[in-house]
């Protein structure tokens, strides 16, 4: 085992051409580091120059998505580079485990790579050896990417001619192999190959020999085609085609890459995401009060997308939980506003202050919102819930009573001056029902729930009324459980809280569709 002065070596992480990489820690510290041990005797003159260049470049770099060099030292036999430790291994290993990645995860990874490249571009640095083996993951669960191994990196502002070929052939831009020209966009070709491999589980060349690979790199007229077996979004496909143009002048440049719709750097997780969200969510109610509903809706969507980015960026579990509460609150407002826009569009009610009702949809990042925290008790819609309970495991409809409620279906509810009956105009049936405003909602007893039902085929509202009517009889449990009495009571109380939350959300939705006069 190699001994590094001032460090305790624990295990071997990997081997390279000129040495090994070990996991270790500084003496007297518990923080893990990666130690790159390079044998001096194996270094050629060019390799020595590359090592000096790598150390000088790493000393100048500090970015969340670039592996940080903490220190370097040497002795008679080795040069030691101490780097931050990334516990998730490299992207190549991750791909072997997963085979292919979901497009949303690929988009998130690509955003991180784009941020790293944007930082390198600002310093005129070209990596020249981008490949999955040189992209490290901070962890297996919820990983973040970091660029590593800057041994071939160079400072290049414009196209340069080199007497040597740098990089890995499988990810190398054709102009480097064919002509020895190094263009700043050569890194973008490598990104295109990596993107293809992440989505389809193989490189565009498939299983191929070195000689066949060289032939394909020389064949400038051969366009790289996407497999028809795996469907990807149009922006993603357009990005791959733009990156894998053999002619560097036709390939996407860095500015086009950073501004591409699939990359969507504006919504990439960052320290500024929460501030961006707050700005949009503060503006949305102001626009709504002015009657600019479409603009308010768009602001809510932007705010939610930035909240999603802030959630993905934030490492603290406590702060994540606070962001989830915000997301839940504003998601309800957004859905309510969306339903209002749809109602106005359906009834052809327009005003001079309202633009054409074509609200846009949530960004693809916001599709996988984290499971929201649901309010335990229901209060007026103008007030915030005081307590929260997580219902991430089961949907609220899971807790509806499963037995038939025929003997309770005739339950009556008192009329309210704020309630009225709505008859759908586009239906020939007699399905009508009474809705209620949120400020009519109370959770004390069924007498205070203004839910009236004339004809409900689904029976959902009937079940709701039946459920609330049985809450007055504390000796009768509408659910059947197995286990100890304490467990029954705990689960029963949880179901009660969940159902209050369900009715509250239903009130908000119904009130937004059919507002009181």
UniProtKB/TrEMBL annotation:
Family matches, as PROSITE patterns: PROTEIN_KINASE_ATP (PS00107), PROTEIN_KINASE_DOM (PS50011), PROTEIN_KINASE_ST (PS00108)
Pfam families for the chain: MIT, Pkinase
Binding site for ATP: 40
Positions with biased composition (Polar residues): 420-430
GO biological process, one term: regulation of autophagy
Feature: compositional bias, Basic and acidic residues: 400-409
Catalysed conversion reaction: L-seryl-[protein] + ATP = O-phospho-L-seryl-[protein] + ADP + H(+); L-threonyl-[protein] + ATP = O-phospho-L-threonyl-[protein] + ADP + H(+)
Composition-biased stretches (Low complexity): 410-419
Gene field: ULK3_1
Entry's EC annotation: 2.7.11.1
Residue span of region Disordered: 384-430
Record's subcellular location: Cytoplasm
Name of the protein: Serine/threonine-protein kinase ULK3
GO molecular function: ATP binding; protein serine/threonine kinase activity
GO cellular component: autophagosome; cytosol; phagophore assembly site membrane
Alphabetic keyword roster: ATP-binding, Autophagy, Cytoplasm, Kinase, Nucleotide-binding, Repeat, Serine/threonine-protein kinase, Transferase
Top-level class of the enzyme under EC nomenclature: transferase
Domain of life: Eukaryota
Record-annotated Protein kinase domain positions: 7-263
InterPro entries: Atg1-like (IPR045269), Kinase-like_dom_sf (IPR011009), MIT_dom (IPR007330), MIT_dom_sf (IPR036181), Prot_kinase_dom (IPR000719), Protein_kinase_ATP_BS (IPR017441), Ser/Thr_kinase_AS (IPR008271)
């Amino acid at each position: 085992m190699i001994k590094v002065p001032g460090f305790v070596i624990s295990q071997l992480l990997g081997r390279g051409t000129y040495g090994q990489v070990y996991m270790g820690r500084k003496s007297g510290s518990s923080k893990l580091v990666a130690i790159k041990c390079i044998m001096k005797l194996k270094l050629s003159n060019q390799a020595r120059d590359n090592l000096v260049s790598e150390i000088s470049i790493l000393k100048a770099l500090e970015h969340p998505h670039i592996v940080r060099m903490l220190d370097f030292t040497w002795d008679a036999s080795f040069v030691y580079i101490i780097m931050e430790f990334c516990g998730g291994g490299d992207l190549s290993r991750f791909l072997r485990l997963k085979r292919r990645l979901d497009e949303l995860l690929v988009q998130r990874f690509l955003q991180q790579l784009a941020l790293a490249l944007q930082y390198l571009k600002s310093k005129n640095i070209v990596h020249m050896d981008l490949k999955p083996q040189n992209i490290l993951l901070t962890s297996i669960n919820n990983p973040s990417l970091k660029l590593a191994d800057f041994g071939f990196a160079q400072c290049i502002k414009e196209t340069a001619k080199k007497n040597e070929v740098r990089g890995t052939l499988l990810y190398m831009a054709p102009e480097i192999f064919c002509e020895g020209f190094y263009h700043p966009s050569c890194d973008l070709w490598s990104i295109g190959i990596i993107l293809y491999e992440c989505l389809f589980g193989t490189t565009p060349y498939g299983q191929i020999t070195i000689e066949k690979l060289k032939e394909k790199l020389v064949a400038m007229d051969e366009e790289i085609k996407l497999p028809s077996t795996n469907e990807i979004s149009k922006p993603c496909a357009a990005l791959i085609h733009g990156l894998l143009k053999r002619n560097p002048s036709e390939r996407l440049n860095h500015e086009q890459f950073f501004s591409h719709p699939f990359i969507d750097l504006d919504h990439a997780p960052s320290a500024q995401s929460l501030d961006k969200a707050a700005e949009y969510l503060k503006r949305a109610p102001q626009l709504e009060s002015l009657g600019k509903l479409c603009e308010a809706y768009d602001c809510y969507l932007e705010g939610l997308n930035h909240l999603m980015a802030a959630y993905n960026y934030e490492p603290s579990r406590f702060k994540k939980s606070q962001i989830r509460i915000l997301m839940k609150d504003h998601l309800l407002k957004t859905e309510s506003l969306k339903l209002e826009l749809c109602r106005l569009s359906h009834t052809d009610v327009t005003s001079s202050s309202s633009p054409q009702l074509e609200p846009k949809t949530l960004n693809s990042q916001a599709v996988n919102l984290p499971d929201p925290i649901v309010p335990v008790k229901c209060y007026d819609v103008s007030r915030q819930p005081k307590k929260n309970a997580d219902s991430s495991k089961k949907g609220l409809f899971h807790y509806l009573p499963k037995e038939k409620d025929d003997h309770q279906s005739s339950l009556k509810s008192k009329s309210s001056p704020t309630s009225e009956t709505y008859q759908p105009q586009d239906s020939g049936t007699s399905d009508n029902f009474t809705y209620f405003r949120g400020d009519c909602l109370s959770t004390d007893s069924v007498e205070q729930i203004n839910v009236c039902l004339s004809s409900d085929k689904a029976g959902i509202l009937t079940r709701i009324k039946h459920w609330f009517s049985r809450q007055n009889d504390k000796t009768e449990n509408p659910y059947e459980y197995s286990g100890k009495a304490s467990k029954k009571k705990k689960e029963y109380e949880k179901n009660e809280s969940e159902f209050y939350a369900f009715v509250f959300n239903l009130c908000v939705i119904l009130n937004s569709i059919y507002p009181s006069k």
